[in-house]
Predict the 3D structure of the following.
Amino acid sequence: MAKYAITGQQAAVSGSYKTVLDVFATSGALRRGKVFDVLIGTNGTPADNFLQWDISRMTADGTGTAVTPNPLDPSDVAALATAKANYTAEPTITANSSLLNVGVNQRASYRWVAAPGSELLFPAVAGNGLALRTLSGGYTGSATGGVMYEEQ
Amino acid sequence: MLRPGGYACIADADGGRRECDTFTCGHCNRITHVAARQAPEDIGGLCKVCMALICAACVGRPCVPFLETLDRMEARARFRREI
C-alpha cells in the first residue's frame, strides 16, 4: 500500500468551479485510492477575497496538465493512478458528490488530515477519482493544492 | 471530540489559526467539521447498524456503508468490462 504526494495549481481561478488538482484510477491499471491529506492555498497577489474549495467525485477526465505522483517512500513503485492539474476543460464531476466544501480567505491556507480509516476513497474504476476544485467571486489569480493519497 | 476521524486547520493571514476535528461519514464519505462544543445532533449521528459516524444528510436513511458502495461500483465496472 504505497503512498504518494501530488501538487498542482489552477492558473486562472474564476467564478465557476475549476479543477486545481485531481487523481483518478486509470484504465488497465486499477487500484482503489485513499486521500488522507489535503493542503490548499493561493500564490497570487495577496488581497482579501474568498475562495470556495470543493472536493467532488469525478467519472471521466477532462483536459489538464499531467502530474507525476511522488512516492513518499522512494522504494515504492510508480503510482498506477493518474494525476492532473490546471484543468482547461473540466473533468466530468458527479452531481451532488461534494465530500469537502470549505470557504477560506485568499490569504489563508487550509489543511485537512485524515485519521487512519477516515480517508476519502475512490474506486478502482477507470476514470473515477477525486477532483479538488475552487472558485472565487473576486480572485482571478493562481490557486495551489497538495494532496497525499494511498493506493491499495 | 472522542476519536476524531481527522483534523482541519485554517491558517489565517493575520497569524491566527482555527482548528477543528472532523469525521468522515461512514455512508457517503463526506467530511464534517466539528466545532468545539457543537451539539452532536446538529452534525449528524451514529448509525446503530454499522456503528459509524454519519453526516446530517445521511441521518434517517438506510444503512449502506461506503465500502459496500465502492465494492458494488467496482463489481459493476468489472462486469461491464467482461461483457
